[in-house]
Amino acid sequence: MSELVTGEAVALELRPARLPSRALAVLLDLMAAMAVYVVATIALVAATASLDEAAQTAISIALFVLLLVGGPILVETLSHGRSLGKMACGLRVVRDDGGPIRFRHALVRGLIGVIEILMTLGVVACIASLVSARGRRLGDVFAGTLVVRERVPAGQAGFVPPPPPWLAGRFSGLDLSAVPDGLWLAVRQYLTRMGQLDPQVGWSMAERLASDLAGRTGAPVPPGVPPAAYLAAVVQERQAREARRAFGQGPAGGGGPVGAAGSAGACAPPVYPAAAVAPDARPAVYPSADPGTAVRGERAAPPQEGPSAGRPSTGFAPPA
């Protein structure tokens, strides 16, 4: 898988393209460019029959450079890294940080491609792609780009399991700004693959990751909380903050409750109030679905005292 991680600690589920798929894409691009070049040359010869030989040679060279060098640069710039051959093979050129390429990236790739693809018949490009860990040729190295696969088989992306209901919203006050990208990626990879690990190995890995995450956030793991459940709850809290920041659902660090018809919708998991789970009543293992009010995040009405005890019930609970 790709090692690209964005500034928001989001791991991109992209795979670097290898030599066979890239060679096929380049071959398709060259075949299309040569077909256009032959048609344009025939039309140019018919249009410049009255000119002398030197003028015809100069026009032919200019046409060659324009179509076989400037054409791919223009196409990659306008399509954000998708030429005809790359679209057929499901590839795309992106920057090292995963963003779309610009004209300068396509220009550097095109100019160096003249040397390593056209002049050397692709020998230099093949050697460089085989030596590179991510299959990059010299043009990608100098331009700071990477060719990745856009079409990935469905079901290959890992699913991050949600935390138990009694931990939802429990870590809304954590400071996650000091957690590095590599630790987020390690936690996410563990959560997506913990069902495939040996129980003892998975438990020790979860303890190490939970210890590292607690050291970065400054808050220890609550007693009685399994390390895997703690990791899942913190990851869910981060995803909820990113969803609120992206869709304008209030401040990113808040932990207020979200109603059944709240604004979070289907984009973010519901955030439960921290007071809804009593510290002394929290189970130490993953519980099954319980219809109790603590799991649903509802507040129970306090006992009525004094004259208000004889009033009829209205169905509304006063604020805690």
Q: What would you say this structure looks like, in words?
A:
By secondary structure, the protein is mainly alpha-helical. 47% of the residues lie in helices and 4% in strands. The chain is built from ten helices and three strands; from the N terminus they run E-H-H-H-E-H-H-H-E-H-H-H-H. It has a three-stranded antiparallel sheet. The chain is elongated, with a radius of gyration of 29 Å. Residues 250-318 have low confidence and may be disordered.
From the structure above, extract its key features.
single chain, 320 residues, mainly alpha, three-stranded antiparallel sheet, elongated, disordered C terminus
Largest sheet: 3 strands, antiparallel
Q: Would you report the number of β strands?
A: 3
Q: Largest beta sheet: what is the strand line-up?
A: 1-3-2
Question: Can you write the helix and strand succession as a string?
Answer: EHHHEHHHEHHHH
Quaternary class = single chain
Q: Residue ranges: pLDDT <50 for 5 or more in a row?
A: 250-318
**Level of helix content?**
40-55%
Distance between the termini: 49 Å
Mean pLDDT reading = 73
Portion in strands:
under 5%
- What is the overall silhouette? elongated
The total of helices stands at 10
SSE topology:
Blueprint: E1 15-16, H1 19-47, H2 53-78, H3 84-89, E2 91-95, H4 103-119, H5 123-131, H6 138-143, E3 145-149, H7 181-193, H8 199-217, H9 227-247, H10 293-296
Helix pairs in contact: 1-2, 2-4, 7-8, 7-9, 8-9
